[in-house]
Amino acid sequence: MQDILKKLDLVDYIDSFSKLLAREKSIILEGDINLHHKHINELSKFDFKAPSKVENLDSALMHIQKQGILKIYEIFEFIKIINYFRYLKRFNFDGKMLEWLDKIIIPNEIIKISDYFDEKSNLKDGVNEDFDNIKYAISKNKEMIKQSLYKIINSTKIRTYLVDSQVHYINGEEALLVRGGFNHVLSGSVIDRSNSGFFYVIPHSISELKQKQNDLKNKQEEILFKICKEISSLFEKNLLFLKFLNKEFDRFDHYQARLFFAKVGDKNFILPSKNETNRLVDFCHPALHNAKPISIDFTKSVVMITGVNAGGKTMMLKSILSAVLLSKYLLPYKAHHDTVISNFKSINAVLDDPQSVKNDISTFAGRMVEFSKLFTSKNAIVGVDEIELGTDSDEAASLFKVIIEDLIQRDIKVIITTHHKRLAALMASNDNVELIAALYDEENQKPTYEFLQGTIGRSYAFETASRYGIPYSVVKRAKEVYGDDKDKLNELIERSSSLEREYKQKIAKLDDEIANMQRITNNLKEQKEKLDEHIYSEKSKLHKEYNDARDEAKKAIKAKLVSESHQHLNIAHQKAKEIKVEKVQEIVEFTIGDRVKYRNTKGTIVSIKGAKAYIENDMGMKVQVNLSDLSRSGNPPPKIPTKKATVTIQKPETGSIKLDLHGQRADEAIENLDKFLSDALLAGFEEVLVYHGIGTGKLAFAVKEYLKKHPKVRGFEDAHPSSGGFGAKVIKL
């Protein structure tokens, strides 16, 4: 792992992540990556504190298993983990996090032990009466020693030999600082000398008190040993639980470290997918400061990067492999959330020159050793920098063409950088190969660090040599030796590759258009069949209703009584009124920008949401209507002279850059927050601060969800610790 991190320039990035872990461990998070991501997402809704640093407990668990007795500091490391899970259980988690924490049931006897200690690992008063008595006796004896020393300091007989009137602590012992000759007035033991040549002395008059102090401390250690023995025995009975808890703590430690790491620098989690699409969008390599974001589609089996020297080809290769590695291990990084990465079993980087005196191997031979390992791999991604390095480039082109084609068949994705146009030209006709060129600014004679897909790039070797100080006369002679014919040949290779790509793109575009026309034809055919069926159904319905009305009319004619005839005529009239023909409306698909007609109004569609559309009529007014009420209109909008309108908005007197929501209900807080943001926008504020507190996390979650949906909020983040930390949000408007 360390080797690949070093090759991809990710060592510092991973080190900065590892510092957020509560204890040192591998960055690999075992288990279902999708389940881990769900847990992290659910955790992100709550403001919680990170766990304190914890020692590795593998040795301590082994010691318990062998019925050993733990030291008090080892016991406290377990207590820190236990207390942290007790802290987590106070949150109102739901979903997968709740299911997971519910499985961690801490035995009552373990909870009782965890309450023995304060935050500094000291035993609390009341845990053991003998221990409390000894602690009190030690404190009282220490005070007696201090009083005895101050009594000596205030003695007129010793005062002339004292350097100062303080009690000094030297190696844990109370002592006085005196000048030479003190032995005439003070009997004591010298334990050290100062830089100025004075003596640190322990008077013999407090020796008995010091001895008593040592005896009390020894007694305290004996009592502490008994307490540790009892706790160790209890831990042995709950050994399986402690092992389980220790493992689950490491799992949560991975979660919290990734979550807090993602918050720094606006990083995203990009999960590996089963989709065969691979696309980087606005990726910034962590090793670069103010890096230009990279976007590249590397869905095809082979990506061949050519072009200018020092134009970023190697960093492009490292960026692709870095994104794959970070996604594989669920580590957040700076990229747009539209980035898509496949799940690769292994990641290989052939970047260095393997030649050295120590391994007695040539550059090319070392490269062949690296490639030979790939033939036993599957579902892997490999990056090769300067693929033709170490041998004749023409021979290498033929060899690597065949090697690459074989690797494609083995489901291996290959990312390559090369300056050799022959290899690029040989591979250009392969549908599984994507050509990418690093671009060069010929006017300013420097690389742009931008890339163009679908073409072979020039190396600009002569231009680069001139830029770095090679004399113009030397470069000119080199161009003459190189010859115009080879230069033209390179241009032909680049142009033929571009033409071939354009030709394939046009064919693909035509195929898409043909498929689209076929789809439209099929849809029209289906619509016609449905309309024919509908018309037949409506005709049958009308025929029946007409016959019913006619029968009622006949009954009215035959009726002898006038009242009865009127009754039948009324029924016939009612049936005639009830005869309705369902309107048959052709299904029309509208898109943004279409000219449409709504009742007596004509206009243009500006947006579509579901079954509704916003149209802007020819008078400039916007209205929301149902798509089903629209019909097409091909008439252009009439030209209406525009008038400039001036709108004056007065800043509210209540504008403020801070809002405190502590103690408010969620709905009340959101209402106040909405008014506050409106006032802030009118007042022209670009950044405001909102306090919501930590508490149960409900108010913080409601505030975050509201800010995500607010159309005028550009972004928000946790405030600086001095301004509220996790309990406040800095909102950018």
From TrEMBL:
- Name a single GO biological process: mismatch repair
Q: Where is the Smr domain?
A: 659-733
Return any one Pfam family short name.
Answer: Smr
Q: What is its EC number?
A: 3.1.-.-, 3.6.4.-
What's in the keyword line of the UniProt record?
Answer: ATP-binding, Coiled coil, DNA-binding, Endonuclease, Hydrolase, Nuclease, Nucleotide-binding, RNA-binding, rRNA-binding
Q: Which domain of life is it from?
A: Bacteria
Q: Which GO terms describe its molecular function?
A: ATP binding; ATP hydrolysis activity; ATP-dependent DNA damage sensor activity; endonuclease activity; mismatched DNA binding; ribosomal large subunit binding; rRNA binding
Which positions bind ATP? Answer: 307-314
First-tier enzyme category under EC: hydrolase
**Could you list the residue ranges forming a coiled coil in this record?**
489-559
The protein's role, per its UniProt record = Acts as a ribosome collision sensor, splitting the ribosome into its 2 subunits. Detects stalled/collided 70S ribosomes which it binds and splits by an ATP-hydrolysis driven conformational change. Acts upstream of the ribosome quality control system (RQC), a ribosome-associated complex that mediates the extraction of incompletely synthesized nascent chains from stalled ribosomes and their subsequent degradation. Probably generates substrates for RQC. Endonuclease that is involved in the suppression of homologous recombination and thus may have a key role in the control of bacterial genetic diversity.
In the record, the note on similarity to other proteins reads: Belongs to the DNA mismatch repair MutS family. MutS2 subfamily.
Entry's NCBIfam families? mutS2
Q: How does it assemble?
A: Homodimer. Binds to stalled ribosomes, contacting rRNA.
Tell me the protein's name: Endonuclease MutS2
Organism (species): Arcobacter aquimarinus
